[in-house]
Amino acid sequence: MIGSSGYLPIDEETKQNLTEQASSCRAMKVVLETRRPRLIAKETVAPSPNVSDDLEKVFALATDEEPCALVINAKDESGAVPGADEKQWVVIVWIPEDSPARVKTLWSTA
Fold first, then answer.
1. CA 108 to CA 2: how far, in whole Å?
2. How far is C-alpha 74 from the geometric centre of its chain's CA atoms?
3. Rounded CA gap, 32 and 107, in Å?
4. b/e per residue, 87-100, with b = 16+ CB within 10 A?
5. CB neighbours of 35 closer than 8 A, spacing ≥ 6?
6. pLDDT score for 2
7. Separation between Cα atoms, residue 16 and residue 31, nearest integer Å
């Protein structure tokens, strides 16, 4: 899980999106801040009533230019994911193939 492994810290805004503001955030694109090594939310996607309707917007956040983690809140009004609550997030790590080896290693441990 991001941050729980101790490899990279997470900034406070990202933590708030994962906890206190989870109902107003369907997904986040989390990237590595280069000034000081930590994970930050670069972009967010607001939730619609159905998580399935949001996935196209979420996956569009991943580009071939930048490694990232897409952190997706599974809870929605329609109950698309049975039993999901605001604390259930899905993490998808995207590492473009042409990323430098150092970046690939860093993301594989994030």
1. 11
2. 12
3. 9
4. eebeeeebbeeebe
5. none
6. 45
7. 16
Residue 89, token pair as written in the block = 């997030």
| Chain CA centroid to CA 99, Å | 19
Write the Ramachandran bin of 6: left for phi over 0, alpha for psi from -120 to 50, otherwise beta: left
Express each pLDDT in 34-77 by its tens digit.
888 889 999 999 999 999 999 999 999 999 999 999 999 999 98
Distance between CA atoms of 23 and 33, rounded to whole angstroms? 25
Q: Which two tokens stand for residue 19?
A: 């906890």
> Got the DSSP string for the chain?
-TTTTSSS-B-HHHHHHHTTTGGG-SEEEEEEETTTTEEEEEEEE---S-HHHHHHHHHTT-BTTB-EEEEEE---TT-SSTT--TT-EEEEEE--TTS-HHHHHHHHT-
Give the torsion through C-alpha atoms of 4, 60, 108, 42, to 10 deg. -50
